[in-house]
Amino acid sequence: KTFRPRKKFEPGTQRFELYKKAQASLKSGLDLKAVVQLPPGESINDWIAVHVVDFFNRINLIYGTMSEYCTERSCPIMSGGLKYEYRWQDDSKYKKPTKLSAPQYMCMLMDWIEMLINNEDIFPTRIGVPFPKQFQQVCTKILTRLFRVFVHVYIHHFDSIINMGAEAHVNTCYKHFYYFIREFSLVDHRELEPL
């Protein structure tokens, strides 16, 4: 229920080309701080859209690989240690911030993000269709909530990640995510305090 199939970019589209550039840069062993910078002449909203979808795919996969260790019993509250608790609010079913277990929160989060990135009014895929005015605000909210997945995984389940031998992958993904959100000031600095 918490694992989603990867969202793909249509071959031949501008976003597919940007995605290929981003992937090629990552695989080339370049400095991740340089890799996240906007390529000359490219649209910032396209660059952000490509990365939001890619981070959704990667973080969903990370959580999916260790979700068997994140149960209602082991994680009755979505948190990042004793100091940070994350409540769910989505303005439809949960109009007020609501305590949820970590698995419930993750399921709600992945459903919510999937709904947003599949919404053509928010993440347009056709050439010439502009992004909405609130696009970067929506992306900030998505990325802030995805950051919370890293917080939970690192603080509560990193031993499981190590046991699976996946710590290098998780660390690289986190580092890429962190440099990206810092490059474009997409997540409030206070949200980053847990890590």
UniProtKB/TrEMBL annotation:
<protein>
    <submittedName>
        <fullName>MOB kinase activator 3C</fullName>
    </submittedName>
</protein>
<keyword id="KW-0808">Transferase</keyword>
<dbReference type="InterPro" id="IPR005301">
    <property type="entry name" value="MOB_kinase_act_fam"/>
</dbReference>
<keyword id="KW-0479">Metal-binding</keyword>
<feature type="binding site">
    <location>
        <position position="70"/>
    </location>
    <ligand>
        <name>Zn(2+)</name>
    </ligand>
</feature>
<dbReference type="Pfam" id="PF03637">
    <property type="entry name" value="Mob1_phocein"/>
</dbReference>
<dbReference type="InterPro" id="IPR036703">
    <property type="entry name" value="MOB_kinase_act_sf"/>
</dbReference>
<feature type="binding site">
    <location>
        <position position="157"/>
    </location>
    <ligand>
        <name>Zn(2+)</name>
    </ligand>
</feature>
<feature type="binding site">
    <location>
        <position position="75"/>
    </location>
    <ligand>
        <name>Zn(2+)</name>
    </ligand>
</feature>
<feature type="binding site">
    <location>
        <position position="152"/>
    </location>
    <ligand>
        <name>Zn(2+)</name>
    </ligand>
</feature>
<dbReference type="GO" id="GO:0016301">
    <property type="term" value="F:kinase activity"/>
</dbReference>
<keyword id="KW-0862">Zinc</keyword>
<keyword id="KW-0418">Kinase</keyword>
